[in-house]
Task: structure prediction
Amino acid sequence: MTSKTRLIIGYIILIPSFSLGQNLQIHYDLGREHFTSTLEMFKTGNLGSTFWFVDFDYNNGQGTKNASLGYWEIARYFAVHKVPNTSLTIQYNDGLTNECSFNPVWLGGIQYIINIKSFSLPFDFLLRRELNTKGITFQLTSVWFYTWKDFEITGYIDIWNTGSDAYPSSKWAFQAEPQIWYNIYGNIMIGSEIEISRNFSGAWTIAREFKEDEFFIIPTIALKWAF
Result:
């Protein structure tokens, strides 16, 4: 469970006219053996774009496995019309489990979009402030979105550094979540996501708890409904 759905931002921010969309995803996590739901919305207009998503894990371990973790992110992009392919952004991340709350994170910075023929690749250069820890750190984010016939290939990469009193402390962290979707009928898609991470404290499996400086590769099978 992470920010798996920011992957659409880089695509929709290129649309100059107003657009609105949302979708619901249901993932079965093969590494953790539970379901995760994701509800996301994106909207673009003349000033830029807004994106948010909410994740719920269903893994409380009490038979029915009802909601055990909630996490959400919201990002606002303000287009800099005098500087092509550039936006300013402010973002907020937060969440909690049945046992504790996460440290909220504020991010702010610049997005720049590199156009390669018909393909666009946006990069977010961000300052990152995790509350209840010391100092300001940095984050680089890139996303991609590509369609071919009935297939969608999407994904994102986050690279950031953690503070001296964060968890894990003073580490470079990495997370990527490529997704592939196939449209089976109307707005219904089936697909898969693979969470690839290192020093991301949300990475763990049924067989093994989180470990620093170790890569985790955790796949899902999923269903998506766009509405």
